[in-house]
Amino acid sequence: MSGNTLAMARAARGAGQPAGLLPTAVVLAVLAALTFFLSGYQLFQLTTAIAYGIAILGLVILTGYTGQISLGHGAFYAIGAYVTAILMSVYDVPYWATLPVSAVVCAIFGLLLGFPALRLGGLYLALTTFGLAVALPQLLKHPLLQDWTGGVQGIVITKPDPPAWLKLTPDQWLYLFSLAVAAVLFVLARNLLRGRIGRAFIAVRDHPLAAEAMGIDIAMVKTGAFAVSALYTGIAGSLGAIAVQFVAPDSFGVFLSIALFVGLVVGGVGTIGGALFGALFIVFVPNVAADISKAAPDAVYGAILIAVMFVMPAGVAGTLGRLLARRS
Description:
Strands 1-2 form a two-stranded antiparallel ribbon. The protein has a domain at 41-253. It is built from 14 helices and two strands; from the N terminus they run ααααααβααααβαααα. By secondary structure, the protein is an all-alpha fold. Helix 12 crosses helix 13. It is a multi-pass membrane protein. The chain crosses the membrane at residues 21-43, 49-67, 74-91, 97-115, 122-140, 173-193, 224-248, 254-287, 299-325. GO terms for molecular function: branched-chain amino acid transmembrane transporter activity. It is found in: Cell membrane.
């Protein structure tokens, strides 16, 4: 390829980057503008959806890109929430400073869980992580940890106030803070998964023997994916705890892990943007189901879930991507 052709290719890539960033900037601007049009409760719901979206993004990295099925990510969400609650209530640490601590703690737990995952796969790994989700709430109630976790009573934390120079309510500030954190994490995930590490994840998922023959360290890739996934989910748990202002063992039961997995599948297993669609589904659809039928909301929720999977088997983001590809 000639020098002129290379220069034209570089120019074309550089010209395409701002255009590619424009839709993301528009979406962020619209989401930020909602701060001034929605009620405090509606902003609380969106803040919760943002936290769940970050947790589901962790599952996208683990399951969608490396093929490791986890039904226990609610445990990492709980660990992140408790780290933030303990630091804020006992040690008076600022809420924003608890996020990196939760990230590191959950990454370590994810790394430790990643080692036994090397010998397991498929349904066996799913069952192992499910056991973690079942056991953790009981461990949080154990007398040896009660002084830290508050036992069955849990821990109450205070919702952070906005900076004095901002004329915002606590709900508005927490929503914008969570949105900013999510934007950074989604950009980092996009760069990670579209780079060399992301290609290694996909190679290990699709052709492990070929990946190993190419020199990819499968053990390092799998354990690293678990650590990164747990890191994201831990930060999500921290944001969720700050929004709810309360943590208790029964808040992090098995249903939370199942709900996160449902959000992963509904949004699109291998899509980054699908994490947001999945989060919106698990936050708002149960409310819609309860409004439709007070007597059997779970039946309505199940019917809606079946209908969504029937119409969009590739998930919301996957289906939208295919439709846009056909139009172009």
